[in-house]
UniProtKB/TrEMBL annotation:
Signal peptide: none annotated. Its EC number is 1.4.1.13. It comes from Sulfurospirillum halorespirans DSM 13726. The lineage of its organism: Bacteria, Pseudomonadati, Campylobacterota, Epsilonproteobacteria, Campylobacterales. This is Oxidoreductase, glutamate synthase [NADPH] small chain-like protein. Residues 22-141 form the Dihydroprymidine dehydrogenase domain.
Amino acid sequence: MREYKTIAKAYPRKRPAEERVEDYYPIYHNFEESEANAQASRCLQCPIDLLRGLESEFTFCRTGCPLNNNIPRWLKKTYEHDYLSAFELSNARSPFPEILGRVCPKKGLCESSCTLEKTEYHAVSIGNVEVFLNEKAYEQGAIPDYGQAEGRKFKVAVVGSGPASLSCATFLLRSNIEVELYERENRVGGLLMYGIPNFKLPKSVILRRFEWMKEAGMKVHLSTEVGKDVSLSELQEKFDAVFLGLGVPKGRSADMENEDANGVHQVMTLLTQTQKNIFDHALQKSVLRNKHVVVIGGGDSAMDALRTAIRHKAKSVTCVYRRGEESMPGSRGEVINAKEEGVQFIFNALPKKALVDDEHRVVGLEIMETYTDENKRLQTKPHSVQTLPADSIILALGFEAKHFSFYDELNLAVGRSNTLIVDENKETSHPFIFAGGDVVRGANLVVNAALDGRTAAVAIARKLGVLEDQKLYM
């Protein structure tokens, strides 16, 4: 190993823009075996565990990963072509590494913390190797460990099926606790299924995980909404514990005039309906075809909406962002992908008013030019109004937690932004009711939701007295 001087950091090959905009398939190719092994060979095998617990200014790939994934060990096994051992190590601390390898930003996490990233040689391509080794192990017959289906003494209700819930269910099953999952949609996956486009995360990867979990004994109640079809009080009485992974279903407002017009949509409405149309082979139902589409926002959800609109065959697709390009909160790679696919960007612009016709349908968007004053506050320039053609306006301005009525049934403590208040074990103010992911943090990374689910599962197992540490993670 340690071939970083002779082998450069590599990135997965990308399909040409003119080809990928014609479909919803992933735009990146997975690493070939030679590419994955070459990247694994670059690892320095830093002595992370020897320094554990010591006060140090050093950071490593493992310390940069919220899950503290044992990255150097599975990189070494990948380099040795021992994919089954690499698979076991990769899955030990992560509930779904083949998903996180695809959707984790890496920047600011494992790859930013890699020792090589601080040098001219740059980090190992950790996420792409992780995807490769897991897919390779699946080809060789590997199946994740979900404990023993027989003899489970306790049962836990998991509400929602997004990343926090999927993670919690995974580690509960590993500790031989029965799990019943409640999902209001008719398909599992939550944010993973409907909030991340298929061209970034193929849905077959998520469905494969859930099939394994069902085979391991997890019961799934689809089209079942807590608070409507079943009460939280009922779950609390029926189960030994409850985990709430409710996400943040409410999109933020743009505070512009005529925001209620026909043609103004929240980003999740577009992404969810698009994915449902893909499942139903009904892409011809697009409401954006031949339309002038404007997306307001600069994060990854905005990029997802823009790139989705391109695939809907919109007449034009424009991004309006209130600050400069360098301030955009989304991934730089996603901005590049959007530009390659034909998206136009207008920076330093704030939406003022949706223009409507006599039937209150969107026909345009008024924007104003912005600047940052000496106190770094955003201001609009007087007399700078411009009008953009727009038949559809997509709001991608972030998400907010919703105050569900069933919170009040059990007097769950709620924060100012409607997020649930939990302790370090992810337990709410009500004993044996736990919560994690965006409903606790607000809109956040998938990997942090996965961490919350794992933390809650460990706490539940300990509280029920059935924890076996070695089965949960290594």
